[in-house]
Amino acid sequence: MIAETKPLTQITQEAIQILYREIGVVNTVRFLNQFTSGYGDYTTERDQLFADLTLEEIVSEIKATRK
């Protein structure tokens, strides 16, 4: 048995069409978004964002937000 080799773009298009049909547009987009790498430098941004906070302060803010 010889498998047909398709161009990657064609495989991607077919897979997205199947996902749309089976789980809908919104869930397809949600599924695909988990594979994007995003942008920016999270490590640098995190260091700047939390530079003046202790771990206890961060935890307190998280708990306050959840209430």
Structural class: mainly alpha
Q: Can you tell me the residue ranges where pLDDT is under 50 for at least 5 consecutive residues?
A: none
Characterize the largest beta sheet: strand count, sense, and whether it forms a barrel.
none
Task: Work out the number of β strands.
Answer: 0
Shape: elongated
- State the oligomer: single chain
Question: What report would you give on this structure?
Answer:
The chain has helices at residues 8-33, 42-49, 55-66. With 67 residues, the chain is mainly α. The protein has one domain (8-66). The longest helix has 26 residues, at 8-33. The mean pLDDT is 90.
Give a nutshell description of this structure.
The protein has 67 residues and is mostly helical. The chain has three helices and no strands.
Keywords:
mainly alpha; 3 helices; 67 residues; 69% helix
How are the secondary structure elements laid out?
Blueprint: H1 8-33, H2 42-49, H3 55-66
